[in-house]
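User: I'll paste a sequence; please echo it back and then give the predicted structure.

Assistant: Echoing your sequence first, then the prediction.
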Amino acid sequence: MPTFHEAIVDATGGPLLPAAIATVQVNIGLACNLACLHCHVESGPKRTEAMTRETLLSVLAAVRSSGAGVVDITGGAPEMHPDFRWFVDESLALGAQVMVRTNLTILLDEGHEDLPGWFAARGVHLVASLPCYTQANVDAQRGRGTFEGSIEALRRLNEVGYGQRPALRLDLVYNPGGTGLPGPQAALEADYRRRLADDWGLTFTRLLTITNMPIGRFARDIDRDGRLAPYVDTLAAAFNPATVDALMCRHQLHVAWDGRLYDCDFNYAIGLGADDAGGAHIADFEPTRFLARRIATRAHCFGCTAGAGSSCGGALA
């Protein structure tokens, strides 16, 4: 089986290189009210890591200097960061589109109940994890009671216009419950629309499918019964050259909570930093140098190129 780098060279004639910095993705902290089995950054209620105000200011400077049009805020549950609301407003003040990756249930917790209206007033684009439309599957991945909380949070978001008004985008994220590849995104979206509407009267903007990456908690879980190596082989065998142009690592800068630079959230999760030509820390970021780097890859990258592809924005091909 070829390495991921070899597969890229065979498909494109050269190494994986960046194309642009359209998005600055920021993992502002690892604290979360959930501890999901598929969480590749292993966030949870006991994690305390959080980006400092100084580093957040460096991120804003990078948004300005790179000309990125999107600030993608993730975690953990990013809403739990003490500077979260300030950072959203500062990002909007730069003219960027702000995208927040939410687990939904955090919107029900004390101190966060007003966020649906707060988000709506600012036109924040929400990307919400909902790995299935059935209670059993969601609770198995994310913990008992998570599905019920997610449905209530979606109801509150619908009430303020999310998923109903074009300006208030509410995307849902599906990932498989095990080691299979996601089904066709369009077909899954149709299933989600029908079931959420029929069962709960809920609407959303679109569905994004994401492949489970063979790293973190998920990798340890499937390795216990010998499924990790076969899963990586499955991903490699499903390599699709048509996904390469749209790979998220080619179009973004990822900043970890400590300010270190990565090609993507998955590389951050395994400590695989961006090429030093781009600067090891956001305080040293310079767009031209960052765009001159070679993207760091390992076997887990096959997860983004398998089948229809996978990214923070869903299927790629």
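The mean pLDDT is 93. The two ends are 23 Å apart (CA to CA).
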